[in-house]
Amino acid sequence: MFTLERATSLEQIIKKSRFVAFAGPVASEQAAKALIAAHSHPAANHNCWAWRVGQTCRSSDDGEPSGTAGKPILQAIDRLQLDTVAVVVTRWFGGILLGSGGLIRAYGGVAAACLRASPLVEILAVQETTIIATFSDLALVRARLASVGGVQVLGESFTETGAVIKAALPEAAAQQIVQMITDVTSGRARISRPVTLAGTAD
Questions:
Q1: Is the whole model's pTM more than 0.90, yes or no?
Q2: Are 114 and 8 in contact (CB under 8 A)?
Q3: Where are the alpha helices (DSSP H) in 92-134?
Q4: Rounded-to-integer distance, Cα 107 and Cα 49, Å
Q5: Within its chain, how far is the Cα of 193 from the centroid?
Q6: Are residues 74 and 32 located together in one domain of the fold?
Q7: What domain range is 185 assigned to?
Q8: Where is the Impact N-terminal domain (predicted)?
């Protein structure tokens, strides 16, 4: 699966109707709704949209015939194997009716072209874990985590005896990293069982 590296927009004129697509990465349903609200044009005839965040997806035809706008936009997202993405396609009517087939091609085509115009980032599975290390082991634990590609330190807090490190580990290497930390601290570090989440490749 992939997501967009950054937001992008694209404009096409199809039989005198002006179509403007805006696509961007979104982390949640709320973020998707905010993107759609920010990039819908009140003066336009239609602001049709679709978004996908994991297993949840929504789409809207915004007054176009049912199934001719929102669904083709969502299909463009899914065909490119994208996730955590929202797309708005705005139409200013140019006076020529496109018919159902023409609308499906126009909305789906403009959305797909917009999505292809943005660089993609692979979504990698990561595992979030908590490492509790003593002060005597802390520098070594930090150094070992820093030496592994794809490890992200999400936060660090201190206790009377040491530190609590929250880290996201690449799922493919999580068990080896846990074993490495256990070995270098001779078992003194306490490590929570990793929980799988989605993350993006750097």
A1: no
A2: yes
A3: 99-116
A4: 9
A5: 25
A6: yes
A7: 123-200
A8: 15-115
